[in-house]
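pasting for ref
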Amino acid sequence: MSFMLIQTPNPLTLRDALPNFSKTTHIFLPINDCRNPSVAEGGSHWSLLLVSVVDGIAFHYDSLNAANRDEAKVTAKKLALLLNRELQLLDLSECPQQENGSDCGVFVCVEMKHLLLKKLLSAHSKEKISMSMAGKQIDASSGRKEMLRVIEDFRKEGERRRSRSSSPSKNTVKSPPRVD
């Protein structure tokens, strides 16, 4: 979604392609630095933009200093037009920093999980919470292992569901469903 926002001159033209945000309180947007719309796998860095719609604040978490600041700024500006409200962009410089050039995607996933489970979903609705990641340590290796475990759990769940589904033939097929 952030890539579409960055590449589209008038973000209001995307309204029909995007979810209805009228009852949304927070939006998690992975940000990539790809500038070429013809290269789907382009870009070399990921960061996270967490938009608190209710507070009008876009928190930018970048594990490589402020490498994606420009992309986050453009995304926040265009999302503000879609939401029909101002958004203040906050670069959170105290977020965990990666030690190499290949952990940014893992950092984004671990940050999203932490911010959602440990901050947003654990707070009471009237409570003000800090969205700072100061002091949070991210172990990219453990993050990768957890991501693989989650994928494997989903794969197993898919197999279980396919094996339980009734088949018109007597031969139970355990391959994924096909589309027309």
